[in-house]
Design a protein that fits this description.
Length: about 350
C-alpha cells in the first residue's frame, strides 16, 4: 500500500530543507526522503578544514539566519552541519532517513517514488539530491597502469596522509585550490589544469558572490538581461589558505598531462613527472540516477528545465544542482531563493488542478 503525499522531496540537504520550509508554510502535505543516517547532506563528507567562503550571515536558509560561529569569520563544515540539523528540528520538517529512493515512475495520475523500504505516491516530486553521489573523474590513457594512489575530492579528508609524498592535484576550481593549498604544506605538489586557473580578486568572497547573485535574481525578476554575474571575475575564491599558498609560490598551474604512466604522469612533448598520488578535483555531476525510469531527455547531463521545473515532466522540480536550476542554487542562499519560487509555482499547479476539477 503506498503512502500518498502532495509532494515528495528527494534529498534532505540544504536544498531539500529549503523546499521543506516553504512547503510547510504553504500547508502542503509533504515528506522529505534522505539516504543519510544523519542531517547535513554533502556537508557531512567534506574535508576537515573546509569552510564556507562567506560569513554565516551571508549563508542563511529561509526563515533563520545561520548563527555566527564564535571566533570564526567563515564557518566550518561542522558548523554548517549543526545548523542544518537544528534547522530540521526548528521547523519540524518531516524528514525520513535513512531512506534511499531507487526510482521515480510515471503511473498516470501520480508519480510513484520507490524507495528501499516503501512506495510513495506524489502529485509533485522535488529532486534535491545534490551532486556528491556523482563524482566525475575524466578518463586518461594509462589510468589503470598507474601504481600510485588516485582519489577524487570526495575521498579527501586531510593533508596528513600525503606527508613527504609527491602529489599531483588536478582541477581548476575551489576544491583544487583549497586542497593544493593544504597538501603543499606537507608534500611536494604539482598543480595541473586544462586551462589557466582564474582567481577572483582578493577582496571578493562569498559576500560579493551573494550580492551579485541577488542583483542577478532581481534583474531576472525585472526581465533585465543577465550580466553573467561573477563569471567574468574568476572561479577561485581567495580564501585565507589559498592566499597563503600564493605567498608560498605554489599557486602555479601546469597544463594538463596527456597520460598516466606506471610511476607518474607524462605530456606529449616528452616530459614526465614521477608522483605517488593524484587527487582528482574534477567536480561532480548531478545525482539523477533515481529519475531514470522517467526517461527524461538530458542535455550535457542536465534535465531541461524552465526555472526549476522539468520541461518534459511538469510534476518534477529540481533544486540545488547549480545555475541550471536557478542562480547560485548550489549555495545555501541560492537554495533558499530557488526553493521559494519553485514552491510558489507548485502551489499554483495544485490550485489550477483543483480549479480544473
Ligand atoms: P546535498 O548537500 O548533496 O544533499 C543531497 C542529499 O540527498 C544528501 O543527503 C544525499 O545523500 C541525498 N540523496 C542523494 N541521492 C538520494 C536518493 N536517491 N535517495 C535519497 N537521498 C538521496 N555552498 C555554499 O553555500 N557556500 C559555500 O561556501 C560553499 N563552499 C563549498 C566548497 C566546496 C569545496 C564544495 C565542494 C561545495 C561548496 N558549497 C558551498 C556547495 C554546497 O556544499 C553544496 O552545493 C550543497 O551541499 C548542495 O546541497 P544540496 O542540498 O543540493 O545537496
Amino acid at each position: 500500500m503506498a503512502d500518498v503525499r502532495d509532494v515528495v522531496v528527494i534529498g534532505g540537504g540544504q536544498a531539500g530543507l529549503a523546499a521543506g520550509y516553504f512547503l510547510r508554510r504553504a500547508k502542503l502535505d509533504f515528506v522529505i526522503l534522505d539516504d543519510q543516517p544523519e542531517p547535513g547532506g554533502a556537508w557531512r563528507h567534506y574535508w576537515d578544514s573546509l569552510r564556507l567562503f562567506s560569513p554565516a550571515e551571508y549563508s542563511p536558509l529561509p526563515g533563520w539566519w545561520m548563527p555566527r560561529q564564535p571566533g570564526e569569520e567563515f564557518p566550518t563544515g561542522d558548523h554548517v552541519v549543526g545548523y542544518l540539523a537544528d534547522y530540521e528540528k526548528r521547523y519540524q520538517l518531516p524528514v525520513r532517513r535513512p531512506v534511499r529512493v531507487e526510482g521515480v515512475h510515471d503511473v498516470g495520475a501520480w508519480l510513484a517514488v520507490q524507495t528501499d523500504q516503501e512506495l510513495w505516491r506524489a502529485g509533485i516530486v522535488i529532486s534535491a539530491t545534490g551532486t556528491w553521489d556523482a563524482p566525475h573523474v575524466p578518463s586518461y590513457p594509462g589510468q589503470s597502469a598507474f601504481s600510485g594512489r588516485q582519489l577524487h575530492t570526495d575521498s579527501y579528508r586531510s593533508p596528513k596522509e600525503f606527508s613527504g609524498q609527491r602529489v599531483v592535484v588536478v582541477g581548476g576550481g575551489n576544491s583544487a585550490a583549497q586542497i593544493l593549498a593544504e597538501v603543499s604544506t606537507v608534500a611536494e605538489t604539482t598543480w595541473v589544469t586544462r586551462r589557466p586557473p582564474r582567481f577572483m580578486p582578493d577582496d571578493v568572497d562569498g559576500r560579493v558572490l551573494f550580492d551579485v547573485a541577488t542583483q542577478r535574481e532581481t534583474a531576472r525578476r525585472a526581465g533585465v538581461p543577465d550580466t553573467g554575474g561573477t563569471r567574468s571575475l574568476g572561479d577561485i575564491v581567495m580564501v585565507p589558505s589559498v592566499l597563503d599558498a600564493r605567498e608560498r609560490g605554489v599557486l602555479h598551474a601546469e597544463p594538463m598531462f596527456d597520460r598516466l604512466t606506471e610511476h607518474g604522469v607524462a605530456w606529449d612533448d616528452g616530459h614526465g613527472l614521477a608522483c605517488d598520488a593524484i587527487i582528482w578535483c574534477t567536480g561532480f555531476r548531478p545525482a539523477l540516477r533515481h529519475l531514470a525510469p522517467l526517461q527524461l531527455r538530458t542535455e550535457d547531463g542536465v534535465v531541461p528545465t524552465d526555472g526549476a521545473r522539468s520541461v518534459q515532466e511538469p510534476r518534477l522540480h529540481l533544486l540545488g544542482y547549480g545555475d541550471w536550476t536557478g542562480w547560485a542554487s548550489a549555495t545555501l542562499v541560492g537554495a533558499a531563493r530557488t526553493a521559494k519560487s519553485a514552491v510558489a509555482e507548485i502551489l499554483e499547479q495544485f490550485e489550477s488542478d483543483e480549479a480544473a476539477v
